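Standup notes
- HV: blocked on the assembly model, inputs below
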Amino acid sequence: MNQTGHCMPRYNPAEIEPKWQAYWDQNETFKTPDLPVGEKLYVLDMFPYPSGDGLHVGHPEGYTATDIVCRFERMRGKSVLHPMGFDAFGLPAEEHAIKTNTPPRISTEKNVTTFRRQLKMLGFSYDWHREISTTDVDYFRWTQWIFLVLYDSWFDAEQQRGRPMDELPIPADVQDAGEQVVREYKDEYRLAYLANALVNWCPALGTVLANEEVRDGLSDRGDHPVHRIPLRQWMLRITAYADRLENDLASLDWADGIKKLQRDWIGRSTGAEVDFFVGPQDAFSAWQSKRCESGYPRNPSDDVLRIYTTRPDTLYGATYMVIAPEHPFVERLTTPEHRKAVREYCDRAAAKSDRDRTENAKDKTGVFTGAFAINPANGSPVPIYIADYVLISYGTGAIMAVPAHDTRDFEFAKKYDIPIVAVVDPGDSFDGERQAVIAGEECFSGEGTAIQSGEYTGLSTSEFKVKIAATLQTDGQGREAVNYKLRDWLFSRQRFWGEPFPILHELDESGEPTGVIRPVAVEDLPVNLPEIKDYKPHDRPEPPLGKAPDEWLYPVIDGVRYRREINTMPQWAGSCWYFLRFIDPKNDQCFVSPEKEKAWMPIDLYVGGAEHAVLHLLYARFWHKVLYDRGHVTTQEPFQRLVNQGMILGDVEFTARRTADGTWTNDALQDGIEVVPISVNDVIKRGETFALKEDDSIKVESRAHKMSKSRGNVVNPDDIVREYGADSLRIYEMFMGPLEATKPWSMTGVNGVRGFLDRAWRMIVDHSAETIVIHEAVNDDSLTAEQLKILHRTIQSVTTDTAGMRFNTAVARMMEFVNFFTKSKCRPREAMEKFVLLLSPYAPHLAEELWQILGHAETLAYEPWPEFDESLTRDDSIEIAVQVNGKLRAKITVPADADRAVLEDIARNDEKLVEILSQMNVVKVVVVPGRLVNFVVRP
RNA sequence: GGCCGAGUGGCGGAAUUGGCAGACGCACAGGAUUUAAAAUCCUGUGUCCAUUACGGGCGUGCGGGUUCAAAUCCCGCCUCGGCUACCA
């Protein structure tokens, strides 16, 4: 039996785990057929970014969960697709490339090798034939192809679907204006389009930074100043799909929390757009009548400031207006005497990131432009301010400010002494000071009844909204509008290590861009990354691909010279469709064969961390819907069921506070007081909290922290596998608690699970023998009635718990099985074999080994999952509780199927109950068969 | 500030529909085995009172409520964690 020939009586994962991994590899045990045979199951893990640090213990948590489901369902006869790959584009590899001046592909491949080794070491049953990496040229060829689909699509708002560009209706006046106007018109509709977007440009580092790399207007690395500058960027029109992305959530089997996160992120709001006239006051009525005739224009003219509001009912209370510092009207509206102050204010705002602006939200700042607009409701002039609490990227970048009914406007108005006019009466039921609100001394942002609102006075908020929207519409001064917090997706990065855009910019004879864009022909894909000499940033806000050799950068097609797009796609791109490629990873004719796509999609179970709850899932859903609309996939949603695994924290740490001279203290943290780690042995529990053993007046803090390099509490799976084995790691991660919960790591816990596997081994293998032989207690006897009951109960629990992904309790039931049979001198082979099959999804290496020891030549991966007989799991007699007034007073043993009358009778005749009941009057008897009998009594 | 989640022994956690709180594991203690230790096996282990045995009181973050019965349902708080952050 022992292939290496030497004696191995003890459970030795270091030997059997590599053995079975090699077996699965050589026998292609988990190779999945191109098309499912029978019922299909597509189970997907969120593929990892292969960082230089290798796997951490958080990865195997979700991966083990899906692996258990896959192994379990294979045994239940399903055709399972379970692939793995790598999301390998990304910043760390590029940073490494800059530092060492080596191509990022080299470090990426090295990291992928490490990840693959670690994943194989854990015994996951992936079909490795399907491995893909987003950085594979054969892969990103199709990422580029999908980009071209996006570029060639527009969103038909009426039909609510994406359609090819050649189906876009071109208005006659546009058609007549010539080719260039038609081209520009088309570009306005494409799902992929170019626009000026603000980026964080850091001149000192010579690079553009992500929002999270900027703090207080300085770069995270090096503290250099960062400016927000507009740059021509690729955008994806995800907002067009906002309503579908929101509505289709209803059909998905996801946790409500995650759905809500997505809904909030999309952030749909309804309200109105209103144009405020900004010309001279005596021209106002002329403008009004003009608007009555022309109607509300699609794009605002120069003589108006267009705003978006969700509360058009508060129009009469708009006492000032605010535009964002980046608003295109800033320059034009500012009067000469305010120019200097405005310029200074806008420069300061430009130096701040969105995040910094919002972090100091309490203190509103702003500057007066000197200009006024006319409130269309009452014709009175209102001052126009510039303030960074208004964001250029939301709505129209301008607001009407109603300080009486918006807390932000209220703060601002207080600070700058702007009139506050209440126009909503909160009513009697209002908790706060109703009179203070009406007097404009307190802000109220709820709904109520209109006051001081001309003809609308007396209307409820909702009636008012409907009426004024209609009026604005007829007067051509506004219209109903919908807005989203979701922005169009900024889809380009000034980076080297990403997918190149398959886009060419036409150049004129002097080498300047003509504005004409030419997509790379599908047959010319892929556009590979060029070799470049160095990866260091320039001092211009230009991507590293600007340094590419001319042969790459300046292709000539049909005598026309082009410059390639030198931005690259963001890391999200590759993960937007990888699940489709897994279905058909080698196809060089199309991104996925329609037949295979139809057979395998949608994904039946998708497991990953909650950190991707919003962006990745939203982006992938968006791409999928475009592909669906264009007829390339057959499902509207890619991820039918989603489960988020919880975070694994480091081992619990105890800390106490100490002063500089070394005395313990409970004082708050301040200069001279430090937090020091305490050993578990020096800690006692005192009441609700922990305290120091040597001085129990000193509080000890007990908490598990996120694993991080800086804290030094990171657990490396390599170490765990070396010391305890992969099967122990797998089971421990499942046994810690529910999959979705956040839970702290514990080394002694792993050791405990290893003890269980040791016992399982010794239950079947004679560990005192010289060679591997089956334990003498294992025989061909038939099971006793009790053994049969335990076996079937175990099968039942493990089956339902595994199917319900309650892995922690499934493991507990298997532990009980082992505890029971280890005590038994007679362990029928039938029971042992069924147990091994139950264990196999959880501890596949050990199970395979035991299966072989029990005399089987083939892998157990496709053995039928054990069946249970429910009638065998039941007891003939059970013990139930007898309560008096809800308190447990006795326990009685009764036939399992005893009815109410019988139960009450037995309970009444119980020795103890006779005694109690003799002194009491029974008012009521509650009998729950199989549970309890409760006597309600009075003296 | 907003949203979401969670509070059960020394610790991780279990507990169908409201129906015997603490499954399983860790840790700890005692015992067996051993020259000894490790390993293994057995026993005990919420807490307080009582201990002659049977026992009894309390107990699922806190305070109320509904109910024959509440970890579970309702109302009001507290604490911790995660996400998010001026979205007009």
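- HV (later): unblocked. Confidence is low (pLDDT under 50) at residues 1-7 of chain A. The two ends of chain A are 74 Å apart (CA to CA).
- Next: hand off to the docking folks.
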